[in-house]
Amino acid sequence: MPKISAGTLGEHRAQTVDRIFDAVARLSRDRGIDTISMTQVATAAEVTRTALYNYFPDKAALLLAFTERVTAYFIESFERGLPKNADATTRLRAFVRLQLRGLIAHPHPSAAEVTAALGPEAYEALAAHVAPMQRILAGILAEGVESGEFRRTDIDATARSILAVVGAERLPLIADATTIRKSERNVTAFVLAAVAASR
């Protein structure tokens, strides 16, 4: 039986899950998510394989739970950091900035990587986890269309495209092949040019 250092069993479980997720984040910085094994995660988290399987019965469950944690972090960041009364352009800039900074703060595999690693059956479950971010972005785009800042488009399709453009910066940022300032400048310019209304 592992030693419980926390005050309660619940706190111990929460701390263990945090260590497991931190291990997944560290491992996914250096290698493709499809090459990460449960044994490697257990070793990096300093828990036994048996303990890891007690929390997550398989790799699919682990990665989906990890993705849900990252999504919750993003949503919390948006609620704190998105200007409430600003125009849609300002809010879209903030959305891109928070997304890019979140990629560094919480490194995580892309949706395509997770889907490729787990198979197509995981796609729907994964999509449900990232849907809140897409809804926030779609809301900003709808505000911009209504105010005349953005041109009329298929909002859901545009939101997916913007998230894909942001996600493309994940590996260059993690690998230090670009800087957060450069990524923010380039992605914001590209996105705003794509959605701007004709003047």
What report would you give on this structure?
- The protein starts with 8 loop residues before the first helix and ends with a helix.
- Helix 4 packs across helix 5 and helix 5 runs antiparallel to helix 7.
- It folds into 2 domains: 1-57, Arc Repressor Mutant, subunit A (Orthogonal Bundle); 58-195, Orthogonal Bundle (Tetracycline Repressor, domain 2), CATH 1.10.357.10.
- The chain has helices at 9-30, 38-45, 49-55, 59-81, 88-105, 111-118, 123-147, 155-167, 170-174, 180-195.
- 73% of the residues lie in helices and 0% in strands.
The gross shape turns out to be elongated
Radius of gyration over all CA atoms, rounded: 19 Å
User: Distance N terminus to C terminus?
Assistant: 68 Å
CATH T-level topology of the largest domain = Tetracycline Repressor, domain 2
Architecture of the largest domain, CATH level 2?
Orthogonal Bundle
- Tell me the name of the CATH homologous superfamily of the largest domain: Tetracycline Repressor, domain 2
Question: Domains counted in the coordinates: how many?
Answer: 2
The proportion of residues forming helix, as a percent range, comes to over 70%
What's the story with the biggest beta sheet?
A: none
The unreliable regions are none
User: What is the string of helix and strand elements?
Assistant: HHHHHHHHHH
Portion in strands: under 5%
* Helix/strand structural class: mainly alpha
Quantity of strands, as a count: 0
State mean pLDDT (0 to 100 scale).
84
The first-level CATH class of the largest domain is given as Mainly Alpha
Total count of helical runs of at least 4 residues: 10
